[in-house]
Structures are given as C-alpha cells and as structure tokens.
Amino acid sequence: MNYQILSMKKFFLILMGVLLFSACSGGVGHHAISDAEDFIARKDYKAAQEISDDIMAEVDIADASVKSLCRLSMVYVKLSEQLNEVENMAVATKCYHAAVEKNADSVAACFSDLSVEDVQYTEMLRTLSDVIDAPCDIRDGEPIDSCCDVHGELCNHHECNN
Questions:
Q1: In which element (H, E) is residue 107 found?
Q2: Taking the mean position of all CA atoms in its chain, how far away is CA 57?
Q3: What is the DSSP track for 27-87?
Q4: Could you report the per-residue pLDDT of 76-112, keeping only the tens digit for each?
Q5: CA 63 to chain centre
Q6: pLDDT at residue 49, rounded to an integer
Q7: d(Cα 136, Cα 152) in Å, to the nearest integer?
Q8: Within 13 Å of residue 62, how many CA atoms lie on the same side as its CB?
Q9: What contacts 97, CB < 8 A, 6 or more positions away?
C-alpha cells in the first residue's frame, strides 16, 4: 500500500514538472509546429491541417515569435497546395506579414537556409505581403495610371496633390 502511494506521488511530481516545463518553454507551439511539419513531410495533410488550425486557434499572433510565425507561414503555404487553398494561403500570408512587421531581418534569417524548392514559397509570401501594404487598391479590368485614379479626392500621397 505504501509503495503505491509513493508511486502515485512520483507520478504526480513528474507530471507537474512536465507541465511546468512546457508552460515555461520559450516559444509558442514549437513542438506542435514540428509535428505539423512532420505530417506534411509524410504527406498527411489532414493531420497537419488539424494541428496547424489548433495552433492558430490558441496563438495570439502578437505574442508569437518571428521564428514560429515563419514556420507557420511555410506550413500553411504548403498546405494551400493540398487543402483549402484560399484559406490556407490567407493564413500563411497573415503569419508571414506579422513576422515581417515584427522584424524583417529575423524573417530573412529564418528563411536563409531553405531548400531550393521552398524558396518559391517565400517569394510568393513576400509578394502577397507586399500587396497588403500597397497604398492602392487593384481593380480587375480597369487600368490604373496612378494611386490618384483609385483614391481620387481622398489621396494623401505627395505626388497626387501636386
């Protein structure tokens, strides 16, 4: 009987230590992101999607590290080729854009050692992120000569007011 109580106490202490360690670890969802990356490598896109969506449901992008955001952007851009193209690309772009807003140099460092196949993804994310910051709207089928053509009287750009 006494042995069982000791075993239970040991189990409880180990469990508390694991929980405390995971609560104090540095990044947001690093292990979960690794799991999602592993599932993508094994072509189990549904599992990767579930894990990634769980991460995004729990993570406040403002609190996430640049590295986590970069990794999530790559996970989502790869998922967009297999599942939920528009939604996953939007999340990938959102993560990438948030990372660049935090520290563009760190984003460049995160992506500096990518494989040749993955470089295309960063270029696509960079382009989409740049569109977010573009000062002009893009209208389908209408030629736009300048920002003023879009904004008209509301344009505050120096070149439009002269």
A1: helix 85-110
A2: 12
A3: SSSHHHHHHHHHHHHTT-HHHHHHHHHHHHHH--GGGS-HHHHHHHHHHHHHHHTTS-HHH
A4: 999 999 988 889 989 988 998 899 899 989 888 888 8
A5: 12
A6: 95
A7: 11
A8: 0
A9: 129, 132
